[in-house]
Amino acid sequence: MRRSLETALAAALFAVVGIGGVVYGARSWMPPLASRHGAGIDAMLLYLLVTVGGLFLTGYLALAYLIWRGGRRDRIGTRLASHKTEVVLSVVLGLGMAVIAEGGVLGIGMPVWTEYFDAAPPADATVIEVTAQQFMWNVRYPGADGRFGRTAPQLVDETTNPLGLDRSDPAATDDIVTINEIAVPFGRAVRIRLHAKDVIHSFFLPHFRVKQDAVPGMTPEMVFFPTSTGSFELACAELCGLAHYRMRGFFNVVSETQFRAWLSTQAATR
Amino acid sequence: MTNGFVRRYIFSTDHKIIGIQYILTGLIMAIVGAWLAVLIRLQLGWPEHQWVFLSRLLPKGMPSGVMTPEFYLAVVTMHGTIMVFFFISYVLVSGFGNYLVPLQVGARDMAFPFLNMLSYWIALLSAVVMVLSFFVEGGAAAAGWTAYPPLSAVASAVPGSQMGQTLWILSMALFIASFTMSGLNIVATVFSTRAPGLSMMRLPLTVWSFFIASILGLLAFPPLTAGAVMLLFDRHFGTSFFLPSGLVVAGKLLPNTGGSPLLWQHLFWFLGHPEVYVLILPALGIAFDILPAFTRKPVFGYRISVWCLVAVGCLSMIVWGHHMFVSGMSPFTGEYFSLVTLTITVPMTIFGVNMLASLWGAKLELRTPMLFALSVIAMFGSGGFGGLFLGNATADMQLHDTYFVVGHFHMMIGGVTLLATFAAIYFWFPKMFGRTMNETLGRLHFWFTFGPFFVIFFMQHFLGLQGAPRRYYAFTAFDYLRDTRGQNLAISIAALLLVSGQLLFLVNFVWSLFGGLAAKANPWQATTLEWTTASPPPHGNFETQPVVERWAYEYGVQTTDGDFAVQTVPARNVPVTA
Ligand code: HEM
Ligand SMILES: [Cu+2]
Ligand SMILES: [Cu+2]
Hints:
The complex is a heterodimer. Chain A folds into two domains: about 1-70 and about 85-120, no CATH class; about 125-270, Immunoglobulin-like (Sandwich). Chain A is about 40% helix and about 20% strand. Chain A has four helices and ten strands. In chain A, the strands form two sheets. In chain A, strands 3-2-1-5-8 form a five-stranded mixed sheet. The radius of gyration of chain A is 27 Å and the shape is elongated. The mean pLDDT of chain A is about 95. Chain B is mainly α. Chain B has a single domain, classed as Cytochrome C Oxidase, Chain A (Up-down Bundle), CATH 1.20.210.10. Chain B is built from 16 helices and two strands. Chain B has a two-stranded antiparallel ribbon with strand order 1-2. In chain B, strand 1 (about 250) and strand 2 form a beta hairpin. In chain B, helix 5 (about 115-130) runs antiparallel to helix 6. The radius of gyration of chain B is 24 Å and the shape is globular. The mean pLDDT of chain B is about 95. Chains A and B meet through helix 1, helix 2, helix 3, strand 7 and strand 9 of A and helix 4, strand 1, helix 8, helix 10 and helix 11 of B. One copper (II) ion binds near residues 201 and 244 of chain A.
């Protein structure tokens, strides 16, 4: 009596966890989507949430059932499963898991991944250079000539020239530099070259499903396509020091005319 | 007389004493680690609250009662380091490994008793150095337990990268030296001191798990040792292993040229990934072996489970890059790591299902060790499901370095290992100390542990889906994270509940040590060799050399002892069934 009550209680615990977990998880949790490739990432996550949610519920209910049942037995049932049962169960479940896990990667994940990384940047993409440092995002546009001027770490002066821009280089004269603020025109792809000056940071645009570490000595590039206008937050996702938690930038997707106006005010304030 | 005491209980070469020394040291470190966790949760649950009483306790870290960011980062780093290396590694792997392996293989001691003693004392030294690093200029290391350079290499990058980081590296080097010695010892013990008749396929899965974990440790630790030395050189002797040209830190140009920060990440994760399996395999082995004592029938799929552990061990050596999907590593490499990582789910699933299927047809007795062993199954499944998301490179782009990862690995190296540690302590306490732990307190402790633990780390997965980055001092600076405030508060409350619940364990442990009821030699009516000798076992373990006649799971048979046959019962008395 006491024994079956206790086991029923434990079974209830696991059943509640299983059902509660699925109910809690079934909400929509992601920040609203704002990029084209992000739809693929969300599809991948949705696939995982649904399949894993099913496995999770099944697993917990099975555990709860076995505990409940075991608490009501006074002698054991089948003592030893046959070798064949053991092998069959392993093969079936192992294969099932392989299909769910690898199938997801091969069927949904890889195409999204390959398209994202292989995408040749369209000629009309907005080209931006972002240089992360403790604790801000230096943003640079190439200006009218479409070319970034030379930079050198020897020229860096944190107050007057944080990027170490070589002002004697003609290509540098029209470069536009801002801090913590990126603007891009809606309807065109964005191409970002990422640098880091001091330690590792990570360029994370949660709404765009974009995350890329900024590693000193490397210059990874990202290409993506915004699908809505608005002002979005840019967060740092790699521990970089004391103010990591407020290394915040803005990523504004605006109309073509607003973009041009913004660029010229930025150029003028220099 | 005092000399005898010192030789016997302090500088002992007896594996049982050394095992207990590891366990006690680890439990003390766990208390330190848990305090750090409380501090973390106070900060994240109540970001600007002034904890006046804490400002008296920690005048430097929490002046006016609010934690400083530098102290927060040191606390996070040390919490991770202490829990992974000085709690779980010590208690579960070194502690129970030392205690159980010789007993379960029927040996008088470890293969190299003196080396064993040396391992313990170096391990203790390493723990002391780590804790002392809180008190040096700049405070303890603050670059995270993964210590990525340049942050960890350049003293001006963060206060903890002054003396604190150096001590962190030295402590880790000592830890690795000690862990390598004890791993070698376990491997040698399993190879060379097994009792007559104890073939590899008759070993309890617990021994298998320690054996494979030790081999993994031996293969994975040396590269990190090299990495640690290189980092030390970068920090103090002007080399540039991990530091590229053109670094400008805090306004100053550094002279380094030509290094690569990613090199550290490869070295670290080449160790780091196998290391997590070093921790979880013993947890799984122990839970697997505790189940049949309370289902009163043999386990399901013993042989297949052994091969699963072997497969997991092999695979775990070639998947480290899944920690680096968005690090700037080539995306092609990322595809490889993604595919191989997910193959690990196959043996892991089979193993988990075998544990579940071991309950099939059971006559269940829910004693405290069994409650914890059952919750190991549940937690293992839940953590593995998070792995399915993270091993998928495409999904990981969004989830990497968010709280989803924090939730995942706490369920695994936090939850599975913690629950298995408790299962093991409740199960073998009578053997170790000859006394029984209090059953009512034990069960109560279970109810205060599994629920809150699950809630905390389950919710963290969803913080991650909302895009909350890890290692943030507060979630106050971003608008898109405003909704996470309530969740963080709930998590903090659950965490305080969890920590308070552990007092039940501490009280039970200490009280039972001195006042627990005397334990019989085989209180759980279990079948492995340690239960054939007295509780606690004498020096040398066995009165006579045990001879093994059967596998480790002969439950559900009729014998003079009851419904089980220990491994030494001859086949002519009770038929061998597997
Ligand atoms: C089903 C099998 C598993 C898979 C597919 C898996 C996959 C992953 C992946 C891909 C990551 C990196 C996530 C990121 O940083 O973006 C990760 C992190 C982690 N996993 Fe697992 N994992 C599995 C099982 C385990 C187990 C059994 C343990 C421990 C016992 C574990 C412990 C960890 C730890 C400690 C981290 C995070 C380290 C850190 O960044 O601080 N995982 N896992
Ligand atoms: Cu950061
Ligand atoms: Cu890993």
